[in-house]
Design a protein that fits this description.
Shape: elongated
Number of strands: 0
Number of helices: 3
Amino acid sequence: MQHIGAKGFSLFIAVLFVGISTSSAHAYLDPGTGSIILQVLLGGVAGVALAGKLYWHKFLSLIGAGPRVNRNERQRTDRSAGVDERSR
């Protein structure tokens, strides 16, 4: 079992205290509230998916799992792009 720090223990006690001390609100939630909650959840999922799509290649290059390109293909693409091999 891992050691829980003093801050973690304090946070646990605070959450436990708030959870025990709350009472039911008896509030009315109309259908519009459910719709807003659903929109927030779906928007969050879409935002995470978009961020993942944008940063996926950066993540792969960070861990070294980028696409493998052999030397012959790189020279062919460099020549077609007008890159001189000596400029590397």
